[in-house]
Amino acid sequence: MATTFIILKPDAVERGLIGEITTRFERRGLRFLAFELRQLEASLVQQHYAEHRGKPFYDDLVAFLTRGPVVVGIIEGPAQVVEMVRTMMGATDSAKAAPGTIRGDLAMLVDENLIHGSDSPASAEREIGLFFPEFRPV
């Protein structure tokens, strides 16, 4: 078994989509090991998205992720769980996301696209460590 990390962004929480999105993962057979509603601090978001610092969208991204509550979670699944979750999320640009994906079915804007998911096992490990420093895999 392996783990990955997700954030249900403020637009998902504001639109009442937490249950819809998490149910999709659970129906797939994936399991939440951690699941928490939080108001993120700018410093944590800046650490999380450090690779984007200096890009034109960076300040707006930090403002967006701190504008309201989010859900952060750790998902457990088979060795390819990172890829499974990313496929289920769909393309970052909701206009290009395939029907049947979370973004393809539910997102409306490229910069408010409902969900973040780790892009690699190494990123998942780093992100879990940032958001759940006390987490120890079972």
Automatic annotation (TrEMBL):
The keyword Transport does not apply. It is an enzyme of class 2 (transferase). InterPro entries: NDK-like_dom, NDK-like_dom_sf, Nucleoside_diP_kinase, Nucleoside_diP_kinase_AS. SUPFAM superfamilies: Nucleoside diphosphate kinase, NDK (SSF54919). ATP binds at residues 9, 57, 86, 92, 103, 113. It catalyses: a 2'-deoxyribonucleoside 5'-diphosphate + ATP = a 2'-deoxyribonucleoside 5'-triphosphate + ADP; a ribonucleoside 5'-diphosphate + ATP = a ribonucleoside 5'-triphosphate + ADP. GO terms for molecular function: ATP binding; metal ion binding; nucleoside diphosphate kinase activity. CDD domains: NDPk_I (cd04413). Its EC number is 2.7.4.6. One of its GO terms (cellular component) is cytoplasm. Pfam families: NDK (PF00334). Its main location: cytoplasm. The active site is at 116 (pros-phosphohistidine intermediate). Its cofactor is Mg(2+). Residues 1-136 form the Nucleoside diphosphate kinase-like domain. PANTHER family: NUCLEOSIDE DIPHOSPHATE KINASE. Belongs to the NDK family. Major role in the synthesis of nucleoside triphosphates other than ATP. The ATP gamma phosphate is transferred to the NDP beta phosphate via a ping-pong mechanism, using a phosphorylated active-site intermediate. NCBIfam families: PRK00668.1. This is Nucleoside diphosphate kinase. The lineage of its organism: Bacteria, Bacillati, Actinomycetota, Acidimicrobiia, Acidimicrobiales.
